[in-house]
Amino acid sequence: xxxxxxxxxxxxxxxxRLMRVSRQLMESAEEALKAAGLPPLAWYDxxxxxxxxxxxxxxxxxxxxxTLFAQYNISRLLARLEADGLVEKLPVADDGxxxxxxxxxxxxxxxxxxxxxxGRSIAELVGAKLSGDELIMVSALLxxxxxxxxxx
Amino acid sequence: xxxxxxxxxxxxxxxxRLMRVSRQLMESAEEALKAAGLPPLAWYDxxxxxxxxxxxxxxxxxxxxxTLFAQYNISRLLARLEADGLVEKLPVADDGxxxxxxxxxxxxxxxxxxxxxxGRSIAELVGAKLSGDELIMVSALLxxxxxxxxxx
DNA sequence: TCAAGCTTGATGCAATTGCATCTATTGCCT
DNA sequence: AGGCAATAGATGCAATTGCATCAAGCTTGA
Lengths: 152, 152
Fold this sequence. Notes:
- The structure is a homodimer.
- The first copy, chain A, is mainly α.
- Chain A has helices at residues 9-35, 41-53, 60-67, 71-83, 105-127, 132-145, and strands spanning 87-91, 99-103.
- The first copy, chain A, is built from six helices and two strands; from the N terminus they run H-H-H-H-E-E-H-H.
- The longest helix of chain A has 27 residues, at 9-35.
- Chain A is globular, with a radius of gyration of 18 Å.
């Protein structure tokens, strides 16, 4: 657990599992969405944050903080969401540079449809594989790996 | 028996942690490689498999099985690796369609250099954050999520 | 033997990502 | 106020990815 240049076999194995499993699960969820004719996961992430933010909306830089997307990525993703009528861009009164992004009713509906599929994937891929205690344990362990780490 | 198959809060949290942490850690490792002027992680994955395979090399479809990359992705990645002289493509005697990919000495050297940086990232990002027992536990839990699941 | 179908790997084209840079504001400091 | 760095967001261009399809070789079965 002390920091070294070379990783322990246990650390390597945990890393490998983490990378492989996360990629595999993400692809499964992505595939389910596509099979249902729905947008990709990235859209869900943004719509989810905006739905939670409510009518006040969020600034693009706030979305960047919450989602880990790169700035240019958010910029273009929002352009696509707006083109599809799922969000709207509003000017900000006290900052001429910025804008506020607000989810539209159509955006909420799309999010709802996506969750029906996405949530089922989560239930099947994770919920059905581990017990409640195990799920809590894996969350706690992964929380330690986060930056900044969370304890809960 | 109309199941809604809605995921439990614990499952949702575990999923969210898994997705966020894996992305964050992957980006950190990727960043470290780039800062060292080295190729991206995907190259390492392939070079690693080929190095383990030894002089006999591997067929592209075997790399696909081992790495989870898409077929077109491997095809183009191998083209780039070959262009850089890190691997060589050899014809296969008993199958005129196929080829065998073998790592070159330069490829082994590049892999070694990448490991110096990549391994350090793993040690810092994972090895330094959890104890040996915790690492074993997270590996076991993630192993249950794999498809097919592994028990170890 | 040979047509039909499967496997292996490549590729044209469109969409997305990454990088660098650009514009427009804002805030700070003198 | 004026100059200057910092912030917010967009965008041109190159590289990569995803999708669909292709070509070549192998295999099978009548």
